[in-house]
Design brief:
10 helices; alpha/beta; globular
Length: about 290
């Protein structure tokens, strides 16, 4: 009778089998070949199947105990991380109001919260999921503050179809990509597009997941199969991006990171919620921020 493999051996076998599939990521984001990307759209770097997944979640986006529960719990840390970026290099725009572009805004969890901040001038949320954007608009109508002219705008389109700024002042102080890049079929192209919308002295901030044994066990086995915190198939481990790969990508981009690059891990502790953990960016969820040179 064949003996069942121990968990560690199963993990090793899975990682070995996915080596060819993930090699496009592990070599370098900047070397990704469009010809080898499956399901890539001519107008969006987001896989259409990913959009379908988020469309299906739209009706429960604002259920704090539903499938987006972990995103609701993480949201305060997103603001804490952005604050740490601005503390690293003071931003004069804080005095006159910040302009945010929230890429992949989904149902608007971060978008809404950013629009309520005292130092915010305007927030634009953009997402290719029509159902998610509609859920965001409906929820925003419940808050009169969010109905103030120019404060909050939602767009149902991919970032690739958004008009580029004509002058630097039309760009944004903060461009956020929270839990988005791991759903892209062409991460390098996606990032390059997003860079165009950050004004000089502004920040690109994101959160994503490192591609490690730990993240496979926690986000795939535990979160999807055992505890079922998120729908099965929501994440593709092969699309996860390591913090080192992001640094290598931005190192190749002229005009970025001279004055500010920051990263920190983010771990979910049952019963306590999300906590930032220095060094955790090497093995699981993490935040990453980089400043465009002034």
């Amino acid at each position: 009778m064949r003996k069942s493999l121990p968990l560690a051996a199963k993990c090793a076998l899975l990682l070995k089998r996915t080596t060819l599939r993930t090699s496009l990521y592990t070599e370098s984001l900047s070397l990704r070949s469009p010809s080898r990307i499956r399901h890539a759209s001519s107008t969006s770097s987001i896989d259409p199947s990913e959009v379908s997944n988020f469309n299906a979640l739209a009706s429960t986006w604002w259920d704090v105990n539903g499938s987006s529960r972990l995103l609701h719990l993480m949201n305060p840390l997103r603001h804490d991380f952005i604050a740490s970026c601005h503390n690293l290099v003071p931003n004069p725009s804080l005095k006159r109001g910040l302009h945010y572009l929230d890429v992949g805004c989904g149902g608007g969890i971060f978008t809404e919260s950013a629009a309520r901040l005292a130092h915010t001038a305007k927030v634009v949320g953009i997402d290719p999921s029509g159902a998610a954007v509609e859920a965001a608009k409906i929820h925003a109508r419940q808050d009169p503050k969010l109905q103030e002219p120019g404060r909050l705008e939602y767009l149902n389109q991919p970032i690739e179809s958004l008009s580029l700024p004509n002058v630097p002042d039309e760009a944004y102080d903060v461009v956020s990509l929270f839990e988005v890049i791991e759903h892209s079929s062409a991460p390098a192209d996606f990032l390059r597009t997003c860079l165009n919308f950050v004004k000089p002295g502004g920040w690109l901030v994101l959160s994503t997941i490192a591609r490690t044994w730990t993240s496979w066990i926690t986000t795939k086995v535990a979160a999807e199969d055992i505890i079922r915190l998120v729908p099965k198939g929501m994440h593709d481990w092969a699309k996860y991006i390591n913090e080192k790969e992001l640094r290598e990508f931005f190192h190749s981009q002229k005009g970025w990171g001279r004055d500010g690059v920051i990263a920190t891990g983010c771990i979910y502790i049952p019963g306590l919620g999300w906590r930032m953990v220095s060094g955790g960016e090497r093995w699981g969820n993490y935040f990453f921020g980089i400043r465009r040179d002034s």
